[in-house]
Amino acid sequence: MKKLLALVALTLISQPALAEEAPKWSLAIHGGAGTLDPKAMTPEKRAAYEADLQRALDAGSKILAEGGAAMDAIKAAIVIMEDSPLFNAGKGAVFTWDGTNELDASIMDGRDRSAGAVAGVKTVRNPILLADTVRTQSEHVFLVGKGAEDFAVSKGFAVTPPEYFATEARREALERLKAEKLSALDVDHKFGTVGAVALDQSGNMAAGTSTGGMTGKRWGRVGDAPMIGAGTYADNRACAVSATGWGEFFIRVGVAHEICAALRAARFQAATIAGPDAELHDQWLPGENYAQEVADTVMEDVAKLGGDGGVILVTPEGEAIFSFNTTGMYRGRATSAGVREVAIFGGEEKASATPDH
Ligand code: ASP
């Protein structure tokens, strides 16, 4: 009995320490933001979107829960959404004015800020993997068009026939845009770009974004998604961000870098003021909602210029955050603290039934 009591006491004493030390991980994904009308969404359509978001979330969070790398987790999640015809990335990408599908993607590793990006590619099934190959197997950051496709072939990527990317719904959107002289926003209603950000158990972060751009784009138009600093940014010292929205405004604000820079500045200030005093350092660190406030402020800035859309981010503390100034954003998040949710419209976060990995 004595022995048993001693064991219980020991467990009680050691538990808080163990809980504190448990390594954190977190993941957030998006499948585009926009003017989403709950009434226009059939239960079947909603279930299909939620199922694909859930699959992407599960694939990434399984890797993180098992101790895998943030970089692997975001690629696994993004590839699933690129392969789904529901999102504007890979298969299901929007059409250009000329009736083609031109794909953009970027990826960044928060450990060393190595980055890769591609724009205007038409024959690569998973542009996020090509962006990653630019990051790891070239001395460049950003490759475009035919050059990017030649690079892909030289690295062993299969040439995907352009018809693979085409879907009827997206073709109709282009036809309507032309016939009724509409803007991309009128026909798309939402930005279906996909993205993922992750923090792994080693404290490393990564971000990636992949898109078909905006319906009816012409003259080689490229948005923010493949631009490091605008649509994608990752820095272990601050955060990892992926954006979706009206690309021109996100480029002008430099959204992803702006958020990371503000978060890094706050940490830098805490470290400078506190010096080696750890307690003082913690006092000066921004409070719990700081990252959310920073993301919201930057999104307000986008809105002030006339743009809309949203961002996802993770922080070194393990937060997984959404911020959007549209009525909805296809999104999901999972963390080591037990958060598991996918959501579409504003304010409807709900825990999903996915068991812990
Ligand atoms: N940001 C993308 C672009 O401007 C569009 C999107 O998010 O769907 O190309």
Number of strands: 12
CATH class: Alpha Beta
Number of helical elements: 11
Beta-strand residue percentage = 15-25%
Instruction: Return the domain count.
Output: 1
The averaged pLDDT comes out at 90
Low-pLDDT sequence parts: 4-19, 351-357
Task: Classify the secondary structure makeup into a structural class.
Answer: alpha+beta
User: What CATH architecture label applies?
Assistant: 4-Layer Sandwich
CATH superfamily, by name, is (Glycosyl)asparaginase
So what's the oligomer here? single chain
Question: What is the terminal separation in angstroms?
Answer: 36 Å
CATH topology: Glutamine Phosphoribosylpyrophosphate, subunit 1, domain 1
Main sheet specs: 8 strands, mixed
* Spatial order of strands in the largest sheet: 4-3-2-6-5-1-11-12
User: Which of globular, elongated, flat, extended, rod-shaped describes the shape?
Assistant: globular
The bound ligands are: aspartic acid
If you had to describe this structure to a student in words, what would you say it looks like?
The chain has helices at 2-21, 43-65, 70-83, 127-137, 145-154, 168-179, 184-188, 247-253, 255-274, 278-284, 290-305, and strands at 26-34, 103-109, 114-121, 142-144, 194-199, 205-211, 232-235, 239-245, 309-314, 320-324, 328-335, 340-345. The chain starts with a helix and ends in a 12-residue tail after the last strand. The protein has an eight-stranded mixed sheet with strand order 4-3-2-6-5-1-11-12. A four-stranded antiparallel sheet has the order 7-8-9-10. Mean pLDDT is 90; it is low at 4-19 and 351-357. It is globular. The protein has a single domain, classed as (Glycosyl)asparaginase (Glutamine Phosphoribosylpyrophosphate, subunit 1, domain 1), CATH 3.60.20.30. It is 41% helix and 21% strand. It has 357 residues and is α+β, with helices and mostly antiparallel strands. The chain contains eleven helices and twelve strands. It binds aspartic acid.
